[in-house]
Design brief:
Alpha-Beta Plaits; binds flavin-adenine dinucleotide; 8-stranded antiparallel beta sheet; 5-stranded antiparallel beta sheet
């Protein structure tokens, strides 16, 4: 599929807002933030000047390697591309971008890079928000290996409900291949349209399930990963007690141990039974108390999103001061009528207000619920959030807009929320002269929530975007770690989260990880700077 992805925002070139739309957005934001913002013109690709490639692939590999300006510029960044792309800033592009079409071509490119001592960066959809695919400065030649030509569902075992799938497939193309067979992987991260199966596995992505089956980890039955030391291939089994799980070495390895080429994934019937409801709470605390009780009742709703009053107002139009809990159940086989009734009874008990018009139950229909009312309003704000309509559309306007996320036990949550909010507000005040912050729970566990924060401020004249983001990010991340949270629930470690991941990870585990890296990647060529230093 020859789609052109944008060089400066998350999404397709075809969906980029026009210059005029960006000027209008800058004007609106200027008014909202009380500062003067402008939309720069984005340099066309023909005008980009990139460093000359330092290496050339041999004839035998040339058929699937590219060195043109656009491909190298595109593979210079993950989603950290935004402001760089706006300014045409590509100081450190990969020298070669390989698009292997088979395991044999994958082996050939890795062997060439390993023999030459060139660095290799595995690349899926490039939606990493943590610098996971960005070549670091001061490196020797870099070969970025994009899996985009390995994008097929190879086999389906309908009896066991599993499918063998190539790693480079993007979310929509994967679902297109499973749909005619009545199946779905049903893993929908917000970046679904612009990320791949291999990227999800390599980063332990979190999908749309708010409880229970959340991380991609739960869906991996077995996988194949090519390392400089050979293939690591695991056995297809539903579960095993045979020692540490070898899948777990590859899941979350962020391209530092090998390149995942395919996986057997657990698939499911497409849902036909659904039930959903929106519940408002007079206070934020009341909302998270209800959420905790529903999660601990083990009802396992597919959706259990709690929005703080600020976000509920801006994205779902609820009255001022009310937190909003969106509850959704789904199944391919069973009515969800009694599950939603049980969840609503818990929510009411905790002080929730339920409008009967906001409760929808569909028994055996193909049509999904939640398309109207408050949930519909929230969906319409949430889904474009992953494209140019979201933070990406603000790129280059001089706005400091970003997100961070964590997970923490219920016991530590209230303190974490307090400290993260005050540290982030203080950093926004010092850096931007003020700004806004909101929070939602993207995922919820019986022992704690996964809160997700979004901040917006105006960048002072003369300050670089990375500097402004860095100040906010540092304050928030320090507070998260100090209160017992993790540096990331699903955005991965990459390069951005290294300082906090290094504190969070047990020192002895770091040695074990280093030992694994030196066994699988003795030359230390794979994704340097990510996750661990060789
Ligand atoms: C708007 C937006 C919304 C997002 N929402 C979510 C969300 O809801 N949930 C979530 O979990 N994340 C989310 N993310 C983060 C990101 O989409 C995930 O980390 C995703 O899993 C990355 O997949 P990718 O295919 O784009 O991988 P890439 O960004 O290309 O790579 C990510 C990392 O994985 C490695 N890698 C990629 N493919 C392979 C492979 N085949 N073998 C070995 N290593 C590989 C890379 O080297 C890199 O370290 C979001 C990002 C954006 C921009």
């Amino acid at each position: 599929m020859a789609v052109k992805r944008s060089l400066w925002m998350f999404g397709l070139e075809a969906d980029e807002p026009s210059y005029e739309a960006r000027v209008a957005a800058a004007a609106r934001l200027s008014e909202r933030l009380g500062v003067e913002l402008q939309a720069p013109r984005i340099p066309p690709v023909e005008t980009l000047q990139l460093r000359k490639p330092r290496i050339t692939p041999p004839e035998a590999l040339a058929g699937f390697c590219r060195q043109d300006v656009r491909d190298r510029a595109y593979h210079s960044y993950g989603y950290d591309r935004v402001d760089h792309g706006v300014w045409g800033n590509y100081p450190n592009p990969p020298d070669v971008v390989a698009h292997p079409r088979s395991d044999e071509e994958l082996e050939a490119i890795l062997e060439w890079a390993d023999n030459g001592g060139f660095y290799v960066i595995p690349f899926g959809g490039g939606s990493s928000v943590v610098g996971g695919v960005t070549p670091p400065d001061d490196l020797g030649p870099v070969v970025t290996v994009s899996l985009d030509a390995m994008d097929r569902v190879l086999e389906v075992d309908a009896t066991s409900r599993a499918a063998r799938i190539q790693a480079g497939v993007f979310g929509p193309h994967l679902e297109e291949q499973l749909r005619p067979l009545g199946f779905t992987l049903r893993h929908f991260p917000q970046s679904f349209a612009g990320s791949t199966l291999g990227g999800w596995i390599a980063t332990r992505a979190g999908g749309h399930y708010a409880t229970n089956h959340t991380h991609i980890d739960d869906f991996v039955e077995s996988l194949r990963m090519l390392t400089p030391s050979g293939w690591l291939e695991t056995r297809r089994i539903p579960a095993s007690g045979a020692g540490p799980d070898p899948n777990r070495l590859a899941i979350g390895s962020e391209g530092v141990l090998g390149i995942i080429s395919e996986a057997w994934m657990r698939i499911q019937l497409r849902p036909r039974f659904r039930a959903s409801a929106a519940v408002t709470f007079p206070t934020w605390d009341g909302g998270w108390e209800a959420t905790r009780r529903i999660a601990q009742a083990k009802l396992w709703p597919a959706n259990l999103r709690l929005l703080d009053p600020e976000l509920a107002r801006s994205s779902a139009g609820t009255g001022s001061g009310a937190a909003l809990l969106i509850i959704g159940f789904e199944s391919g086989e069973l009515s969800q009528r009694s599950n939603i009734a049980d969840a609503l009874s818990i929510a009411r008990d905790a002080g929730g207000v339920v409008d009967d018009a906001e409760v929808r139950v569909e028994d055996g229909s193909e049509r999904p619920t939640g398309r109207g009312g408050t949930i519909g309003a929230w969906r319409e704000a949430f889904i474009p959030g992953a494209s140019g309509g979201g933070l990406g559309g603000l790129a280059g306007l001089g706005v400091v807009a970003g997100t961070f996320e964590t997970a923490v036990t219920w016991e530590s949550w209230p303190e974490l929320d307090d400290r993260v909010r005050s540290a982030t507000h203080e950093a926004l005040q010092v850096t931007c002269g003020g700004g806004s912050l909101n929070c939602r729970f993207t995922h919820v566990y019986p022992d704690g929530p996964a809160p997700y924060y979004t901040y917006v401020g105006a960048r002072p004249q003369g300050m670089k975007a990375a500097e402004a983001h860095g100040a906010v990010k540092r304050a928030a991340s320090d507070a998260i770690l100090a209160c017992g949270g993790t540096i990331t629930h699903h955005h991965a470690v990459g390069r951005l989260h290294r300082p906090w991941y290094d504190q969070e990870r047990p020192a002895l585990f770091a040695r074990v990880l280093r030992a694994a890296k030196s066994t699988l990647d003795p030359g230390g060529i794979l994704n340097p700077g990510v996750l661990i230093d060789p």
